[in-house]
Design brief:
Rossmann fold, 2 domains, globular, 14 helices, 358 residues, six-stranded parallel β-sheet, alpha/beta
């Protein structure tokens, strides 16, 4: 979005916080940015407001705008996981928002049944380029031999999660090296946590290569044998690249205890959710240990039959995400423009995506 000219009012690191217990210490900062964002919107008078994901922040903005009497179209992009926990959030959204655009095909019914206009526009991972990495280029750039076994390691993008996962992932790689022999490691990261990641991986085995650019990440996927990843949307990027993966995640113990009581799904990995079965190994909470992570990755590296099953499952997950010939970003943009146009004409907001591509 910055590349397209966006100037952000708030620094992302102030808002990129996951979990319940994790949010509480930052509540004052988040609420301050909510107030500033609402004030900026009321001053700018846009044709519509599109909030993206991050319900803890976005919904407070929407709620305050409605409380202030604002009637401009409010559109949310990326549905909250009401199918996993806190189903009542769908009804809360319907009070404030005019429309919701979802990334997963099974999500619209959860919101339509409470009266919220909703449509599936497709997942942006489909146009990410994750399936077009150049492994040869990555190996040549970083001096890797063709027979160097490369493991992609993705410890997350939020400060809290990388702090928790880096020591666990590092220990898992040490254990993995003892199981399978010499390996190399690449660690894709993002600007907000890059310095912390680069510092933490210096003592890891495999002489880690840290990369920040998206194309370098996808090239690393193409050059790698397997991936160890934090739970999140990166799983879909890895699936698109057909890179066999193991997913691990830890949260604050208080948050883990809460989620253990209220989660309604058996899987949290998006690939497993799309397929409705446990293809990708998920090691979460207390199960996210170096020993278990290493053993799971070792199986992916050693067992070609297991790798083939993963690749077949990833292809099926991709097929379930695809919808028509229009890229998801254009479908989302068309939907927003339709809603704005309908509002200006004084008619009801449209809920079907136009079929023409721009």
């Amino acid at each position: 979005m910055r590349e397209r000219g966006l100037i952000s009012l708030a620094p992302l690191e102030d808002l990129a916080i996951g979990g319940v217990a994790e949010v509480l210490p930052r509540a004052t900062v988040i609420l301050r940015w909510v107030r500033k964002t609402v004030a900026a919107i009321r001053e700018l008078r846009p044709d519509a407001v599109v909030t993206i994901d991050s319900s803890g922040f976005s919904w407070r903005v929407a709620h305050r705008l409605r409380r202030c009497g604002e009637t401009l179209p409010l559109i949310h992009y990326v549905a909250p996981m009401v199918w996993a926990w806190r189903a009542g959030r769908a009804r809360r959204m319907a009070r404030w928002y005019d429309h919701l655009m979802t990334l997963l095909p099974f999500e619209p019914p959860y919101f339509e049944r409470v009266g919220l206009s909703c449509c599936y526009v497709g997942h942006p991972v489909l146009e990410s380029g994750a399936d077009r990495g150049d492994g040869g280029r990555f190996r040549a750039t970083h001096g890797l031999a063709q027979d160097d076994l490369l493991i992609t390691t993705l410890p997350g993008s939020r400060s809290g999660e990388v702090t928790r996962l880096l020591p666990i992932f590092g220990a898992a790689l040490e254990r993995l090296e003892s199981l399978i022999g010499r390996l190399r490691v690449v660690v894709p990261t993002v600007e907000t946590v890059a310095a912390r990641v680069a510092d933490a991986v210096q003592g890891w085995p495999g002489t880690p290569i840290v990369v920040q650019q998206t194309q370098d990440k996808y090239d690393a996927f193409a050059a790698s044998c397997a991936a160890l990843a934090a739970s999140g949307s990166v799983a879909l990027e890895l699936a698109l690249a057909k890179l066999p993966m193991v997913v691990g995640y830890r949260l604050n113990p208080l948050t883990e205890a809460l989620l253990d009581r209220i989660l309604k799904v058996r899987h949290v990995n998006l690939v497993n959710l799309l397929l409705g079965k446990p293809l990708v190994c998920e090691l979460l909470g207390p199960n996210c240990t170096p020993e278990r992570l290493a053993a799971a990755i070792a199986e992916l590296v050693r067992n070609e039959r297991v790798r083939a099953v993963h690749r077949e499952g990833y292809d099926e997950a991709r097929r379930r995400l695809e919808v028509g010939d229009i890229p998801p970003s254009l479908r989302a943009a068309d939907q927003i423009l339709d809603i704005v146009a309908a509002r200006k004409c004084g008619g009801p907001a449209l809920t079907s995506v136009r079929r023409n591509s721009r």
